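Class, look over these structure tokens:
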Amino acid sequence: MNDFIEIHENALAREDCAAIVARFEAEGGGTPGRVGSGYFPELKDSSDITLEGRPQWEDVQNLLLDAALRATKAYLRRYPYAALAPLMLQTGDPPRRLHAHDLETMDDATLTRLVQTVLRPGSINLQRYTADKGGYPYWHCELFPRDEQCETLHRHLLWTLYLNDDFEEGETEFLYQNRKVTPRTGSLLVAPAAFTHTHRGNMPRGGAKYIATSWILFQRAAQMFPSG
């Protein structure tokens, strides 16, 4: 049975990954990582750098966003109802409903426009998990209602790009799928954001673990449905 967890190998070149890790350390290694409700190192023990609003990281942000866009388009081609089921998309004049085959066979430029119309990228977080100490042991999903703007409830997919693999363990573990994803440098994981894909980040052994992580969110209603 399909578990809706997709791994895209070589989403980013190894040399690009190594350069991002080096810049992370050159900037001072980040600040203590937070979860949705605050700083709780017993739930998540990491050092983080959020790229949003940092001009010096714009090139890295664009590199990662390009990788995430490619992965999102591939995900929608494989699982077209990730877009069709919640949005009932239509096209043309007179309009007709899109079907799964439309997304599966859509040319790349048209699919890119569709993705950018109905979805948007989240802020990207670089994270370091210290060897034999760091991790995200709390079983969690990516939807979180303690947000007055309901921003976190717009999260549809999660993604994680592994920036190194010179350590043992440190897998991304999914609870209900009974699956552990082993980090591989440059590979990008995509999965649904909801409770069905509750997961945790296991402690790396013998070396620090570096990742870039974010979400693919629905556009807000005012953007998609301006007429109400």
